Amino acid sequence: MAKMSKILEYYMVMAERHTGFWIGLPLATGKTVAREEWLRLMKEDPEHFHLVEIRPEEQTGYSHGIENVIEHAVFVTWSDEQVQ
């Protein structure tokens, strides 16, 4: 039986190269990607392909005692890159 791949929501964001800070909020693309595929892309191009982990207590301020991490695939475009 084949192992099921975890599916991630795919976002895009622009960031300032010198600070790494995001310029605005990440935009949902409406697409999904297999986690294994995204990890492969991260190895090939770590400058643009990122994996963002969010813990529920970071959003609510309340720890549920369960280590539940939500991962999102984020493609970063740097502010000094030309968009074509």
Chain-wise SSE layout:
Layout: E1 7-15, E2 22-34, H1 35-44, E3 49-54, H2 56-60, E4 70-78
Parallel strand pairs: 1-4
Antiparallel strand pairs: 1-2, 3-4
Structural class: alpha+beta
Number of domains: 1
How would a crystallographer describe the biggest sheet? 4 strands, mixed
SS element count, helices = 2
What is the rounded distance between the termini?
43 Å
Roughly what is the average pLDDT, rounded to an integer? 85
Radius of gyration: 15 Å
Strand residue content: 35-45%
* Low-pLDDT stretches: none
Q: What's the arrangement of strands in the largest beta sheet?
A: 2-1-4-3
What are the key terms here?
alpha+beta, 4-stranded mixed beta sheet, 2 helices, globular, 84 residues, 44% strand, single chain
